[in-house]
Amino acid sequence: MTAQLVALGIFVAVFAIAAARNVNIGIVLFPVAALVGLWIADLSLEEVVAGFPLSILVLLVGVTYFFGIAHSNGTIDWLIETSLARVGDRDAALPTTFFALTALVSAMGAPLGGLVMAPMGMSVAHRRGIDPMLMALSMGCGLSAGAFAPTSLFGIITWGTADAAGIALSPLLLFAVAVVINLVLLAVAHVLFGRGRRRAEAPRLERAMVARGAALPEYGQSSLSLDDDAPAEVRSPGRATPHQVLTLVLMVALVVAVVVMALGGLEPDIGVIGFGLGALLALVDPAAGKAAMSRIDWGSVLLVGGIITYVGVLTQMGVIDLIGERAAHVGAPVVAALLLCAAAGLISAFASTTGMLAALVPLALPLIADGGIPGWAMICAIGVCASIVDVSPFSTVGATYVATTVDPDARPRMTSLLTRWGLSMVVVGPVALTLTLILPGMVLS
């Protein structure tokens, strides 16, 4: 047991040090996994390296490359501008619109890609008199919802890890749970911060700058154009180019293929499909294909790869089984599940959500096997609990929303409210998901 505890202590220490130093945790953990495997676990180097998740690598690279082309050829921008143009000056629909748009972008490979909506969303909120907190939470909930799509990072990692462990979890069910939970949170945000909207007329100079398409100070270029007397109007995006039309068709084809195959009981390899569709687009538009290479999420590949490789060493040493035995002594399995979900939320509020998913999903396996908790419910709960806290200003997502709040005087309020919201989710998320997913799942199983 001493060797097991030492290996687990090294894992926690290296994870914390790398996070504190803002270094990719996976890059640090991979060589440490080799050292622990060779010197403590008495494994061969081949056995250690065999734990690297090649299937998840294919998923991440294939999906992020395909959607990288969609970004590079302007298809994503065209979709956003078209959607905003259809909303027009219906202020009440703007927070929900930005929820949907952020979810759409987040579902396209990299969840943090949804942050491209932040400057635009916070600028629109300022001009239309919408509470910036409502807009930030709308986009934050959208980012969390889209992140668990079968085509996005959180969904790929959560479902891929569960699938590798033999847990029956539909990627569409995982996505549906995330969408429903975040829609509920969006409704709560509307109740708390949606009152007292007012029409806010932009200063004449700023409106003139936007009308000319000039870059606004600090917040980048806006897609809004205003005249002196009218409220904010969104510029017409024009017609899609042939390359953009083809990209849209293939995006729909990818989604349809995943849904149809999943409903048919098959396990679609989304990464391979993404590679195929990306290759087709690259042949049609080589420039966009080349530009998309820089959009492949290598950082996440290395992060997840290093963490899962180390977890593989821990598994072979029996550490995961040991944790399961200790969890059984907590009392009721549902209490252990609640604590695990709370740990996922608390740590994720200050550290990498991707890292939390890669580390905690395997740690939940003994609880699933011995505690009578349905695997699909436990994995969904961990994933969503780790994600809904991301609006905390201590994370990349929350910090971005504070930084893009237009009125500097409003930023301290945003920091305070986002802190309260994020930390409240550490409690609310686990309790809500335990009551709505885990307990009913245990009764029905």
Automatic annotation (TrEMBL):
Cleavable signal peptide: none
Record-annotated Dicarboxylate carrier MatC N-terminal domain positions: 1-147
InterPro entries reported in the protein's UniProt record: MatC_N
One Pfam family cited in the UniProt record for this chain: MatC_N
Keywords assigned: Membrane, Transmembrane, Transmembrane helix
Membrane-traversing stretches: 28-45, 52-72, 92-113, 134-160, 172-193, 245-264, 270-289, 301-323, 335-364, 421-444
Protein name: C4-dicarboxylate ABC transporter
Species name: Aeromicrobium erythreum
